[in-house]
From TrEMBL:
<dbReference type="InterPro" id="IPR055342">
    <property type="entry name" value="MreC_beta-barrel_core"/>
</dbReference>
<feature type="region of interest" description="Disordered">
    <location>
        <begin position="284"/>
        <end position="321"/>
    </location>
</feature>
<feature type="compositionally biased region" description="Polar residues">
    <location>
        <begin position="307"/>
        <end position="321"/>
    </location>
</feature>
<keyword id="KW-0133">Cell shape</keyword>
<dbReference type="InterPro" id="IPR007221">
    <property type="entry name" value="MreC"/>
</dbReference>
<dbReference type="GO" id="GO:0005886">
    <property type="term" value="C:plasma membrane"/>
</dbReference>
<dbReference type="InterPro" id="IPR042177">
    <property type="entry name" value="Cell/Rod_1"/>
</dbReference>
<comment type="similarity">
    <text>Belongs to the MreC family.</text>
</comment>
<protein>
    <recommendedName>
        <fullName>Cell shape-determining protein MreC</fullName>
    </recommendedName>
</protein>
<dbReference type="Pfam" id="PF04085">
    <property type="entry name" value="MreC"/>
</dbReference>
<feature type="domain" description="Rod shape-determining protein MreC beta-barrel core">
    <location>
        <begin position="130"/>
        <end position="276"/>
    </location>
</feature>
<dbReference type="InterPro" id="IPR042175">
    <property type="entry name" value="Cell/Rod_MreC_2"/>
</dbReference>
<dbReference type="GO" id="GO:0008360">
    <property type="term" value="P:regulation of cell shape"/>
</dbReference>
Length: 321
């Protein structure tokens, strides 16, 4: 029982001490509130205390701020990377569109030149597109996207906006094969636009040159002269640009000249060509007129007022009757 009374007494004493402390705190709080209300010294104390503890407060909050800044930076970098990727894709698409538009402009310009060339020479033509090219040293040929179903025929001349390219040698239902002027088996009749000298330009098979062999030693040709198609042979229309003389030299015998010319057409770059429908007609003298009937010595003199030139025709008519 003694122990129980001692425990109760100590518990009561502790409770009384707590009550006294609480009352003291309350009195202190009330006093501070009254002083703060009636005097301005307490705000100065608070300000000084805040300045004193501000470094500690900033240091305590620094990790949280750093983590927040890191998260914001990572999010900003991710957003910037995504935006940069989208901008690169948009730029690539824009560049592709610009390149396509430039190609269309060039193609449109080529088509306009082709049509203008055909109109200026009053020739009918059919546009075609190059779909394949064979520039082997021994074969210089093109394949076009037009064939027999589109009315293409063997022998049609093919030109681009700059000059003669070649001639159709094979026609399939939907495609046509063109023998280029630089093919070793090609022979193009040409004429010097300045001097009128005629020649035949053969395909060299190597590079982009035409050979003009066996020219007279005194032929009036010069480097830089323009060669046009002459129309001889009826294979190519006359007057189209064919080539430009680039070199002239004597052959080994010294009796003839050899010239090399660069084709006017862009054989390896043109993708739009014109198939000419009007082929050149062979040039030559008119056919002789054969006069049938008896010789004039057997007819005798014509009566006055009658022309002897009409007698053979009358004689033939009488013979038929």
């Amino acid at each position: 029982m003694a122990l129980s009374r001692d425990g109760s007494a100590s518990l009561f004493a502790a409770s009384a001490g707590s009550t006294l402390r609480l009352a003291g705190y309350l009195l202190l709080a009330v006093a501070l509130m009254m002083l703060d209300h009636h005097d301005d010294w307490l705000p100065r104390v608070r300000s000084a205390t805040a300045l004193a503890v501000e470094p500690a407060w900033r240091l305590a909050g620094a990790p949280a701020r750093w983590l927040g800044d890191i998260r914001e930076n990572l999010a900003a970098q991710s957003s910037l990377r995504s935006e940069n990727r989208k901008l690169r894709d948009a730029l690539l698409l824009a560049n592709v569109r610009i390149a396509r538009m430039q190609a269309l402009v060039r193609q449109n310009d080529q088509l306009k030149r082709l049509l203008d060339a055909a109109d200026s020479l009053r020739m009918q033509g059919q546009l075609a597109r190059v779909i394949d090219i064979d520039l082997d040293p021994y074969r210089r040929r093109l394949v076009l996207n037009r064939g027999a179903r589109q009315g293409v025929q063997v022998g049609q001349a093919v030109v681009d906006a700059h000059g003669v390219m070649g001639q159709v040698i094979e026609v399939l239902p939907n495609t046509a094969v063109v023998l280029l002027v630089t093919d070793p088996s090609s022979a193009l009749p040409v004429i010097d636009a300045r001097s009128g000298v005629r020649a035949v330009a053969y395909g060299s098979g190597s590079g982009d040159l035409l050979n003009l062999p066996d020219l007279p030693i005194n032929a009036d040709i010069k480097v830089g002269d323009s060669l046009l198609t002459s129309g001889l042979g009826g294979r190519f229309p006359a007057g189209f640009p064919a080539a430009t003389i680039v070199t002239i030299m004597a052959d080994r015998s010294g009796n003839y000249l050899r010239a090399a010319a660069r084709p006017a057409a862009r054989l390896d770059r043109s993708d739009q060509v014109l198939l000419l429908r009007d082929l050149a007609e062979p040039m030559g003298p008119p056919a002789p007129v054969i006069d049938a009937g008896p010789p004039s010595s057997l007819i005798g003199p014509a009566p006055a007022g009658v022309d002897n030139t009409s007698t053979p025709q009358a004689t033939r008519n009488g013979a038929r009757r």
